[in-house]
Amino acid sequence: MANYVLFETASGYSLFERLQSEEIGSKLESVQNSIADLSKFSKMLKLKSFAPFKNAADALENANDVSEGIVNPSLKAFLEMNLPKSGKKSKVCLGVTEKNLAGAIKSELSIDCASDEMVQELIRGIRLWADKLLGQLKAGDLEKAQLGLGHSYSRAKVKFNVNRADNMIIQAIALLDQMDKDVNTFAMRVKEWYSWHFPEMIKIVNDNYKYAKLIKVVKNKAELSESDLEAIAGICDGDESIAQQILDAARASMGTDISPVDMINIQNFADRVISLAEYRKKLHGYLVTKMSYVAPNLAALIGEVVGARLISQAGSLTNLSKYPASTLQILGAEKALFRALKTKGNTPKYGLIYHSSFIGRAGQKNKGRISRYLANKCTIASRIDCFSDSPTDKFGQALKKQVEERLEFFDSGALPEKNIDVMKKVMNDLDLNMDEEVSEPVLTGKKRIADDSVEEEKPAKKSKKDKKDKKQKKDKKDKKEKKDKKDKKKNKD
Fold it and tell me: Nop domain: which residues (predicted)?
């Protein structure tokens, strides 16, 4: 049972001595309601000591230590100074909010700590009446200190977030996917709207961006002339034949006439589609730049967009690097996996990595094998990106080459290069030290295993022979016993 309570505030540490409180009926509503009454609660606890922090930096340091379960030197000095020594008659037990901090105090200061329900209730009451119980603080000072410490604590957490670069990639890929949906929806609306006037142009030009730009040039089909061919050909990548097709289609079009007001609205909407499509290109360029900085090897291996989707699905590059290859392989196909487990059907072979070009190039029977191999290489690439000091895409390019060789192996049977040899080459190119004797223990290990198995086989054969002999002896013994019994029976008769 805690007879002292430690309370951490934004201004400093406070130590309360427990005078009286109901332990047995602590869960009763009447006892819990007594915490809401200051006159009753003030009889339960008494402020023994208060140690303010030196400045804002000291408060932030102590707050970080408390959250991580570390005993700060100032907290250690405060407890040693104010807590009495525990004896046989009077045992000292300190009530602490954080369980991790309680364990740290017990191991470092050899003070018994408690974090049970009773302690939590008392701390709830202290937090409720903190301004009244801590008489040294002026009214409103504690709130100001809490606000200042809260801002600095949050700022420090964001600043020291190791995944902060990943956040930009996660937001960019989410926006890119949303932009793809929006541009497709808006382009479909533009085509449907303008097709009432010029329906033939959809069959000639399929690209949404080019179609929206052509609306700006063609406008009213009745006014289209030979002088517009150059502008139309410029939008169609210099293809004059397509420009001539559009001109011929406009002259023989079955579409209805359109009023100037309707054409202005269609053109305004086409402007919006063009601006969104151009922004989407810029966003893709930004994503490529960020991926080349944050995860260059993963981007080189599987592409920027698929790599970014993997990071987004995992939550961060650190999380992705911790995943085994089997988890990365089905990342993004969780619904299909749980459905298969529920119905006891076939589990999915791939998730997000299905969008990689390697899966599409593999034959139907080899898709599962290449997805497993690709997931393995993606795991290696993500770990190199996460834990390497200097970012480089050399490893990613080497891993990509290995996947290419594996695809060739499935088709032609040509043996691919070993992973350890590939890694050695890259390390030598980057002038990094690597043990050249890494492959030797692997070989010796294999020999050793082979030798051990041979040695184990001999006694196994021997043991079988022994068993056979024992069985034969037992059978003989049983026959002999039966014979003796028959003889005895005959003698009696």
Answer: 294-412
Q: Identify whether residues 209 and 232 lie together within a single domain.
A: yes
- Helix locations, 138-239, DSSP H: 141-159, 164-194, 201-204, 208-218, 229-235
For residue 152, being part of any structural domain is answered with: yes
What is the residue whose two structure tokens read 């040899």?
Answer: 421
* Cβ contact 133:106 at 8 Å: no
CATH code of the domain in which 143 resides: 3.30.420.220
Q: Radius of gyration of the chain from Cα atoms?
A: 38
Give the torsion through C-alpha atoms of 235, 239, 240, 243, to 10 deg.
-50
- Alpha helix (H) ranges present in 83-140? 99-109, 117-128, 130-133
How many CB atoms are located within 10 Å of the residue 71 CB? Answer: 17
pLDDT in tens, 259-283: 989 999 999 999 999 999 999 999 9
Q: Which domain holds residue 111?
A: 4-158
Of 429, 453, 488, which marks where a domain is finished?
429
Same domain flag for 221 and 150: no
What confidence category does residue 464 fall into, taking pLDDT thresholds of 50, 70 and 90? low
Do 274 and 299 lie in one domain? The reply is: no
81 against 86, higher pLDDT: 81
Query: What is the dihedral sign for C-alpha 52, 54, 60, 66?
Result: negative
DSSP, res 55: S
| CA dihedral over 76, 78, 80, 86, signed as positive or negative | negative
What residues contact residue 407 under an 8 Å CB cut-off, 6+ apart? 358, 361, 362, 370
In this structure, what token pair is assigned to residue 137? 């603080």
Kindly state whether residue 467 falls inside one of the protein's structural domains: no
Which of these three, 280, 308, 334, is where a domain ends? 280
Q: Which of 14, 6, 28, 12 is nearest to 92 (CA)?
A: 6
Q: Counting Cβ atoms within 10 Å, is residue 332 exposed (0-12), middle (13-18) or buried (19+)? A: buried
138 shares a domain with 11: yes
Are 202 and 265 in the same domain?
yes
- Is the residue at 486 inside a domain? no
Give per-residue pLDDT as tens, 292-326. 988 999 999 999 999 999 999 998 898 999 999 99
Q: Judge whether 92 and 112 are in contact, CB under 8 Å.
A: yes
Identity at 224, one-letter amino acid code: L
Residues 143 and 58 in one domain: yes
On whether the pTM is more than 0.85, the answer is no
Where do we find the tokens 């793809």?
180
Domain count, the chain: 3
- β-partners of residue 6 are 15
| Total residues belonging to the chain | 493
